[in-house]
Amino acid sequence: MTTGKVINHNNSQIVELPLEVHFPDDIAQVTVRANGTDRILSPAANWTSPNLIDTH
């Protein structure tokens, strides 16, 4: 398991992701879902990353 870092900034939080779990460069927005104490980040619905599109 990889560990990132949470930084508090004003009324927001920034999550620093380790290099091995970075999103592709063309992902600019993510959705955040809460599941208990877990936070799940996924590319936002309008993403177009060729690395994530299933063409099969």
Give a count of the beta strands, DSSP E runs of length 2 or more: 4
Number of helices: 0
Structural class: mainly beta
**Termini gap:** 29 Å
- Seen as an oligomer or otherwise, the chain set is single chain
Query: What's the main sheet like?
Result: 2 strands, antiparallel
Fold topology:
Elements lengths: L4 E5 L2 E5 L13 E6 L2 E6 L13
Antiparallel strand pairs: 1-2, 3-4
What does this protein structure show overall?
With 56 residues, this protein is mainly β. It has one domain. The chain is 0% helix and 39% strand. The chain is built from no helices and 4 strands. It has strands at residues 5-9, 12-16, 30-35, 38-43. The protein has a two-stranded antiparallel sheet. Strand 3 (30-35) and strand 4 form a beta hairpin. The protein is globular. The protein starts with a strand and ends in a 13-residue tail after the last strand. The model has no long low-confidence stretch (mean pLDDT 86).
In a nutshell, what does this entry contain?
The chain is built from no helices and 4 strands. It is an all-beta fold. The protein has one domain.
Summary tags:
mainly beta; 4 strands; 56 residues
